[in-house]
Design a protein that fits this description.
By secondary structure, the protein is an alpha+beta fold. It has helices at about 10-20, 140-150, 150-180, 185-205, 210-215, 235-245, 250-270, 275-295, 305-330, 330-350, 365-390, and strands spanning about 25-30, 45-50, 55, 60, 65-70, 80-85, 85-95, 100-105, 110-115, 125-130, 355, 355-360.
Length: about 400
Amino acid sequence: MSDKRLVGGRPMLAALLLLAGVGLVALLATVPWSGSEPAVPADAIPVVMTGDACRPADHTVAAGSQSLVIANRGASASGWQLLAGGIAVTEIEAVPAGASRVVSARLWPGEYTYRCGRGSALVGTLRVMAVEAGEADPREATRSAVWRLFAAPVAAYRQILERDGQSLAAEVDKLRAAIAAGDLGEARTLFLAAGLPFDRLEAVALRFPELVERIEPLAEAFPGREGDPAFKGFHRLEYGLFSKASTSGLEPVVEDLAAAVAELRTRMASLPLDPKMLTASAAILCDRLASGEIVLGQNHYAKTDIADISGNLDGIAAIVDALRPGLQAAAPDRLAAVDAETAKMQAAMAKLAANGRFISYDTVEFEDRGELSAGFNALAGVLDKLESALDD
C-alpha cells in the first residue's frame, strides 16, 4: 500500500485494523491535549471519571454527530475507551487529573460501552438511537435519510453473516468427527469445505484479530514453525492432513478451532453493523489480500489458495449485494465502479479453474499472482470511494 492509503478516511481505518486490531463503527477524532481545557460544545455529552466510578452509568443519544466531554475528576491520570462488540472504537490514552478531553463522533445506531480506565471494570453504556423522521437536526437530515435506506439491507447482511457462521461451525464439527475416526480422505475433503464459509465472513471476522490468529495463523509466525506447539488452527490441520498425510495428533487442534469458531459467532452476533463499517471491512480485506497474501500464498501444504481467494471475493460481493438498495440510492456511480472491478476479479478467478476445479496454486506464476494482487488493490480503491460517499 502507498502512504496515501494510510492517511485519513477508510485507509486510516485499514491501518488501525491491520496494525492494532481496532475497528471503527463511527468515524471519530479526538482533540489533542494542549495543556488547557478544550472548547466544549454546548450540547456535549458529559462523562465523568472519578477513580471509583464512571458516570453516567447509562446514557441514550440520537444517532448522528455527537460530542462527548471526558472529564477526569480522579486523583491520577486515566484513560478512556469507547467499545462496540468488545472492540475498541476509539480511546484516549490518558486524561490528566482535573482535566477534560473532547471526542467528536458521528455515531450509528447501536449499543456502545465506554470504559473509564483501560482494562478497568468501571464502565457505562451509551445507547445510540435511530433518528425518526422530522426529529433530526437539519444538518443531519440528509444523512439520517441515507441511514434509513440501509436499515433493511444491513439486517439482510446480518442474516447472511449468521448463515455463514452456522455453516462454518457445522463443517468444523464434521471435520472433527472425521479426524476422530482417523479418516484421512474424508478429513481432507471436509477441511476444504470448512474453509469456505470462513472465507466468506472473513471481512467481518478481521474485526476480531485475536480470534483470526487462533483460527488461521501461519507456521512462519512461530519460532518453531510447524513443530511449534502454539501453531494451531486451519493451517495446522492443513499441515497434518496434506503434508504429513495423517490425522494423528489433530484432535486437540480441531477442538481448539471449534472453540474459536464458537467464540467468533458469539462476538459477531453482538457486533453493531452499519454500511460504512461493512464497506470499509470489505476494502480492508482487499488490502490484506493485495498487500502480500496473494503473492506469497497462504495454503502452503494443500495449494488451495485460489478457492480461498474466491471465497473472500464471494464474501465481499455478498456485502455489496446486501447493501445494494441503499448504495444504489446513496452513491450509484461509485457502486457501478465497485461492480465493474468485482466483475473483473470474478473473470480473473474463472480463468484459474479447469474441469470445474481451481488449479493448484503452485502452478500460478508470480506474474499472474501480481495481476490478482493489483486487481484486489483496485477493488479496495473503489470500495474506499464507496464508503466515503456515505459521508458526503
